[in-house]
Amino acid sequence: MLAACSNCNALNTVSDGDLNLARCEACGHEFAAVEFDWCSCPGHMRLLSEFDCPKSVSALDARIQWEQELGEPLSEAIARFDLCTLLQAPRLEDAICMTYGGDSLKDLCRERGIKSSGSKAEAAKRLSEHSSEELSTLIGLTNWRVCSDAGRVWLERWAAKGVEREKAVARRLSAEDLFAMREKGFSFVKLLGSGSTERTCAAALHIEQQPILISEAEPLPLSGCSLRHCACVYCAEIDSIDV
């Protein structure tokens, strides 16, 4: 699993057998790998997806309770993405183009004695070249972000993982199903994922795809669950191992 260092926010690969403490490869700090696994938090992925196009942080949807979604202040989540290079500063011309409409861009060009004809992109490029410092301050460029290539890959992987989890939840067995299987003589099932379609806690990852005795497979939160509001349950299917 991937976990963020609590000291420097660097991403570290943590083995299943090292779920309590891990040593950061970047700074050497020893941290609790399951203390706050933002890499598995749907709120963080939702925030990252907001920056598919260049956007000012202040332009994020104010109706969303971001701190509640993230489990931490919005500014800290943005800082994590910056440090992990999942977000980056956009080009000034792109931010200008996203900020102003066509007529406003033409007015800005005329005010500065710049050619105003052409497309929005062309006008924005001319403005960025002519008055970069002025317009950077005017639109607050330091507050803008856009997904980096690494961020886009991250989102693609998250989406693919979500599809697999949805399939797993569709195959979830209830307590009654498990009891019926036990009565029919089946002995083992497999954990396919967590009860949430969006995240899996470290406890679930630790035993995922491992044969589990039906007598121990109950649809309850897993021992050692690391999430604050977990919905993890045993999502099981009949295993090929039948003894």
| Mean pLDDT, all residues | 74
Major beta-sheet overview: 3 strands, antiparallel
Helix content: 25-40%
As a whole number of angstroms, the C-alpha radius of gyration is 24 Å
- Quaternary structure annotation: single chain
Note the overall shape. Answer: elongated
| Number of domain units | 3
Largest beta sheet: what is the strand line-up?
Answer: 5-7-6
Return the string of H and E elements. Answer: EEEEHEHHEHHHHEHHEHEE
Strand elements, count: 10
Q: Classify the secondary structure makeup into a structural class.
A: alpha+beta
If helices are DSSP runs of H or I spanning 4 or more residues, what is the number of helices? 10
> Are there runs of 5+ residues with pLDDT below 50, and where?
192-198, 234-243
Strand content is 5-15%
Distance between the termini: 31 Å
